[in-house]
Amino acid sequence: MTEDRFETIAIHAGQDPDPTTGAVVVPIYATSTYVQDAPGQHKGYEYSRTDNPTRTALQTQIAALEGVAPGAGGGCVATSSGLAATGLIGHMLAPGDHVVLSNDVYGGTFRLFAQVLSGHGIEWTAVDLTNLDELRGAVRRETKLIWVETPTNPLLRIVDIEAVVDVAKSTGTMVVVDNTFATPYFQQPLELGADVVLHSSTKYLGGHSDAVGGALVTRDPDIYDRLKFLQNAVGPVPGPFDAYLFLRGIKTLAVRMERHAENAAMIARFLEDDARVATVWYPGLASHPGHEVASRQMSGFGGMVSFLPVGGVDAANAVVSRTRLFFLAESLGGVESLIETPASMTHMSVEGTDLEVPAELIRLSVGIEHVDDLISDLDRALG
Ligand code: P1T
Q: What dihedral angle (degrees, nearest 10) is formed by the CA atoms of 69, 74, 79, 82?
């Protein structure tokens, strides 16, 4: 399996034909429990919070795509949401531990650190991770975790993963990279030295806006054992129906990501050239401050575009209410295009903090519709 390429791994890793029936699709094992021959003697499954064969297939598939070979000691732990995966990382920390996180990050991730884990004695500092001096200045003896999102949500900043790993290595700090925006198709954080990759599988992995899920992947056997323990001990697992939806979605990840990125690049260029738009962020644009790092650590620039319309909040609200194809909705990464204003939707929890985003910011999740239709839709909506 390891010599296979990404597209092949997506369709075959963990997905051998069913040994009983020959079914070419991994069955939905809708069972909570498994019969035992004698107490403790079973076929590898005893209870579906602990393990379920549909989930096992999904975990093998995601691990392989993030470059973790079967049997090498590491692996993937699938969770019931992206935030459940973040929560499991939180359970690895103890009171008195300190976390450095990016000062542009998904609002729910920030809320978990600032409003939940802080109540358990875990301290945090948010810094601009594109500035390594800021990172070095924030790391202290108690720092156990550096939380990287790249590209960041919603400002699409690019963090140099290898450079952050270098700082972390000198202090023995764990580096988690939220790879939701890039996906393993465009970015391989474990290859760049990160300890753990996190996904909101809800997004590009699932790809069809029909299920909520998450995943953690690591090559480190000790971290994997701890996460596997926590997955069972804390219990935020996806059910077999959702595991099946993710397995199915991931099979087409490569072709979808190609089209997302192609469409996003054309839309970013359209917006950059338009007088009704003040600023555009897309890592594939030469004007993007992180373009050089992105070109080095990513093999494509993804499907997310953010911009500021001329005219402030009123203009932004008008644009998002006028699109026909871009649905006004939270979330991202599905085949259909979405539009939103982070300040009043996905990132409300950062209001009044250092992480606050411009009120007139518009975020696009560019889908895989025909790009000419998408550009016409935005052109009309810009008024
Ligand atoms: O929604 P959930 O599956 O729990 O995933 C949380 C999460 C984690 N990381 C990133 C980068 C994310 O974007 C998200 C969820 N984000 C949205 C719902 C959103 O619209 O930005």
A: -90
Which of 230, 250, 270 terminates a domain? The answer is 250
The domain that holds 235 is classified in CATH as 3.40.640.10
Based on the residue annotation, tell me whether 104 is a catalytic residue of this protein: no
Q: What is the Å distance from ligand 1's center to 109 Cα? A: 8
What residue numbers bound the domain in which 244 lies? 6-250
pLDDT, tens digit (0-9, with 9 covering 90-100), for 245-274? 999 999 999 999 999 999 999 999 999 999
Is pTM beyond 0.85? Reply is: yes
pLDDT digits (tens, 9 = 90+) for 214-251: 999 999 999 999 999 999 999 999 999 999 999 999 99
From the alpha carbon of 149, which atom of ligand 1 is closest?
11
**Whether residue 321 sits in one domain with residue 261:** yes
178 is catalytic: yes
Measured between alpha carbons, how far is 360 from 343 in angstroms, rounded to an integer? Answer: 8
Active site residue 195: no
Ligand 1 contact via 83 beta carbon (within 6 Å): yes
Ligand 1 centre distance from Cα of residue 139 (Å): 26
Residue among 89, 79, 45 nearest 238 (CA) = 79
CATH number at residue 303: 3.90.1150.10
Is the separation of the CB atoms in 216 and 196 below 8 Å? yes
Domain identity same for 263 and 198 = no
User: Which residue's entry shows tokens 């029909």?
Assistant: 210
Active site residue 185: no
Report the atom number in ligand 1 closest to the C-alpha of 214.
3
